[in-house]
Design brief:
five-stranded antiparallel sheet, about 10% helix, globular, mainly beta, about 70 residues, 5 strands
Amino acid sequence: MPARPEFDLGDIVQMKKKHPCGGYLWKVTRIGADIKMKCQTCDRVVMLPRSEFERRMVRVEKKAEKNTP
């Protein structure tokens, strides 16, 4: 069984299929049973079930910046 991809809130991820606007990069804006993400090209917001998101995600392009006090 393949390992689950690791991603976090605020990460920029690349998906397998491109969005109709032509963009492959998405920012993760909500994590739960569903994953909410925002297209970095046209700002469209989409929600996918976690299982579908994990299948379609290729890699994390940029990790979110952590603000530590």
